[in-house]
User: What shape does this take?
Amino acid sequence: AQKITQTQPGMFVQEKEAVTLDCTYDTSDPSYGLFWYKQPSSGEMIFLIYQGSYDQQNATEGRYSLNFQKARKSANLVISASQLGDSAMYFCAMTETSYDKVIFGPGTSLSVIP
Amino acid sequence: DTEVTQTPKHLVMGMTNKKSLKCEQHMGHRAMYWYKQKAKKPPELMFVYSYEKLSINESVPSRFSPECPNSSLLNLHLHALQPEDSALYLCASSQAAGRNTEAFFGQGTRLTVV
Assistant: This one.
């Protein structure tokens, strides 16, 4: 069973607008971590933001924020004031304390339009 | 310093060749990972090393052979590969497996098997 779902294969956003990328996850482990990564066409996987399952506050890192809704098992990424350089694949990922692995969702391709 | 260095960046090899991919990190991380990524797909976990011991092998064919000579280095030895093994190979490291901390990735090796 797929543990991470990203329902938006592709998204478009106007430059300077905000955009939300969806992520839902499935786990029975009470202790887990949620991550977002950005992968430009160059291939490098860039860590953006982290949310722990016990964190009370939503994580923020500059223009990135994570909208964490634990009961709904969702961890959406919000990018504010989109820039052309934000065009890339975005992957939601998860770790569980009981397993030594980082699991990735299928990804969302974001295109920022001038 | 959050850098994971992978060499080479590009590799073309024949099906009878033997080659190695290298990965290095100096962050004191004790978990290191190999992922394989096909175009427009998420990374797929291949191997996990925890404290220099192989902890996970995701049923990877024996033509891929990982090695962790010390806590900073991770190798992937390649032998008798098939054209379908052509992909981006990503190395990553994290503080420790099962700790729900972010993994940092190298820029990857683009492998082409001819």
Observations:
- The first strand of chain A starts at residue 4 and ends at 5.
- Chain A has no helices and twelve strands.
